[in-house]
Write a structure and sequence with these properties.
Strand content: 5-15%
Radius of gyration: 16 Å
Largest sheet: 5 strands, parallel
Distance between the termini: 12 Å
CATH class: Alpha Beta
CATH topology: Rossmann fold
Number of helices: 9
Helix content: 40-55%
Amino acid sequence: MGSGAMAATRHRILALGDSLTAGFGLAPDQAFPVRLEQALRAEGRDVTLINAGVSGDTSAGGKARLDWALAARPDLAIVELGANDGLRGLDPALTRANLSAILNRLKADGVGILLTGMRAPPNYGKVFEAEFQAVFPALAAEHGVLFYPFFLDGVAGDSRYNQSDGLHPNAKGVDIIVERILPMVRKLLERAKP
């Protein structure tokens, strides 16, 4: 491989999500996409993260603004949507349909995908919880995309890593999310077409 091969490896990663991606309640430099970009660059990777997180967004909202998000011309995407669907008790079949449409559109545009899973709050009962949580791995398998089972792994329910609302990670929580998701993001980059 000549030196030109390395120069062509710049990747633009779209972080399509809700408040967990947007950085709700945090300083702009503490948001997940910013911290992930810093971690990847510290490994010598030539990446740019695009923060397409919108607080309060559902899977339907993410689907509705996909054209806008794709205007940034990403070649990779991390899809973190569904938390607000779960909080609002929306029909998991609708969440699945919206996320499937997003994945289809990203694939049609040649964008490599890492889908992140979410857990349902317990207040809607075991049936809803099971149906909701089954959406994410099923979609990843159906679409053949990389899958990270729980975006808030290691952070959810731990007051040390969350803001006072108990829902949104604080800066320490974001750093844990980044540390835990990094191996899957590396796989995403390895799968990317040069």
